Amino acid sequence: MKKLLSITSALAIILTLATTSTVNAAKPEKARKLENAKHIVNLRAGIDRHRERAWYWQDVMFVRRHSTNYSENKTKSVVYLRWLRKTWKARHEIAKRKASQPPHYNEWLCIHSKEGSWTDPGAPYYGGLQMDESFQRSYGWRLYNKKGTADNWTPLEQMWVAERAFSSGRGFYPWPNTARYCGLI
Predict the structure, then answer these.
(1) pLDDT at residue 68 in the model
(2) DSSP alpha helices (H): ranges in 62-183?
(3) Residue 63: left (phi > 0), alpha (psi -120 to 50), or beta?
(4) What is the distance between the alpha carbons of residues 125 and 72, in angstroms, rounded to a whole number?
(5) How many domains does the chain fold into?
(6) Are residues 141 and 85 in the same domain?
(7) CA–CA dist 159, 99 (Å, integer)
(8) pTM, entire model
(9) Which pLDDT does position 19 carry in this prediction?
(10) Within a domain: residue 92?
(11) What pLDDT shows up at residue 12?
């Protein structure tokens, strides 16, 4: 009887240990899958954030946006998602660096020094380069539609709109007096 009891007790202990170990093994597996899912969501959010910022700067410079097929939504590969986030981050940083250096940066600053504040809301001319609404709609239509008049734009956005007008063949002539004071015409 003693042997039977000890065998039964041993089986009960083995069964308890086996059940406990499978429960403990299942729990980390679920936790690991949950952590992986959260990581994938965060990677996708990072890709989206960097893509939007890269596109913003490309729009400011009036250059073609990098294309995408939104492949991050079609994969669960963490390695691929990390690579894609790194790629979009690099594109974002390159676009931002290029946008921070408009071709005639010093010339625009000179014109600005003789015009209004970057946030000048006084109609009919707005912003630091004193652009009228027709000029803004012609050369900065995206910004105009999104943010309103130039007094709501950043200095870089205003310079890039002016740069677009310059590149279209207008040169510095939309600012005849201040461009003369700066020795540009």
Answers:
(1) 95
(2) 78-99, 105-113, 133-139, 141-147, 155-165, 176-181
(3) beta
(4) 44
(5) 2
(6) no
(7) 10
(8) 0.77
(9) 57
(10) yes
(11) 61
Q: How far is residue 106's CA from residue 154's CA, in Å, rounded to a whole number?
A: 16
Regions in the chain scoring below 50 on pLDDT:
4
pLDDT number for residue 34: 83
Residue 52 lies in a domain: yes
Same domain, 173 and 127: yes
Q: Is 127 helix (H, G, I), strand (E, B) or coil?
A: coil
pLDDT attached to residue 154: 97
Containing 12, the helix (H) or strand (E) segment is: helix 2-61
Domain end: 83, 101, 119, which one?
101
Q: Which domain holds residue 94?
A: 40-64+72-101
Structure tokens at 39: 């990581």
Angle 73-78-82 from CA coordinates, rounded to 5°: 90
Is 108 within 8 Å of 164 (Cβ atoms)? no
Q: What is the pLDDT of residue 131?
A: 97
Structure tokens at 34: 């949950």
Residues 93 and 109 in one domain: no
pLDDT one-digit tens code per residue, 131-172: 999 999 999 999 999 999 999 999 999 999 999 999 999 999
Are 142 and 177 part of one and the same domain?
yes
Give me the CATH number covering residue 176: 1.10.530.10
